[in-house]
Amino acid sequence: MNAAVKHPKIAEEDRLRADMYDFLGALLARPPGQDLLAQTAALSGNESPLGQAVSALARVAGAVNPLEVEQEFTDLFIGLGRGELLPYASFYLTGFLNEKPLAALRRDMRALGIGRAPGRFEPEDNIASLCEMMAGMIRGRFGAPVALARQKEFFSRHIAPWAAHFFADLETAPNSAFYAAVGAVGGAFAEIEREAFRMSAG
């Protein structure tokens, strides 16, 4: 997503949330190159569900090469005509692309000052872009950092209704190996966010 270059101070907890959203966005927007795979392989997690998912992803990242992951990405998300999965809110919520969920997202993007990034042509309601938007709101890439209540509203409208289903599908897709591990991380993180927002005021 198109964003101004700003680096306001944010709490450490929020920085870590933004890091995870950016990480998932990077892995889901395009096949990771060797540098990102190496960075992923160097990660370590704790005993929490998310930590265990991160550790598993690190192991997988250390055992694959960029060409293998690129082929997996193509099979899953591009394919011949269409990929195995369509990672769009409209599709998951209505069964069709470019439907009401996308229109609602575009309204909220305008209200938040978020524009389509140059060179990006897919609908904005894809999971990678939504992760990038959440990271941008937390970090203040679109102006000042967005208040937690507004983040909660955005997450509840555009991510919570379908992301868990998508990440579960990614975990179990027949052509998914590296991305099965990405799906486990995404699913665990989305659950943490959902529960944290549920418990937050506002």
State the main characteristics.
single chain, 202 residues, mainly alpha, TorD-like, disordered N terminus
Q: How far apart, in Å, are the first and last alpha carbons? A: 26 Å
Q: What's the number of domains?
A: 1
Task: From the alpha carbons, calculate the radius of gyration and give it in angstroms.
Answer: 16 Å
Strand portion: under 5%
CATH architecture level-2 label:
Orthogonal Bundle
In terms of structural class, how would the helical and strand content be classed? mainly alpha
Number of strands: 0
Descriptive account of the structure:
With 202 residues, the chain is an all-alpha fold. It has one domain: TorD-like (Orthogonal Bundle). It has ten helices and no strands. It is globular. The N terminus is likely disordered.
Structure described in brief:
With 202 residues, the protein is mostly helical. The protein has helices at 12-29, 34-41, 49-61, 66-77, 89-94, 100-112, 127-139, 148-158, 163-172, 178-199.
Present the secondary structure layout.
Blueprint: H1 12-29, H2 34-41, H3 49-61, H4 66-77, H5 89-94, H6 100-112, H7 127-139, H8 148-158, H9 163-172, H10 178-199
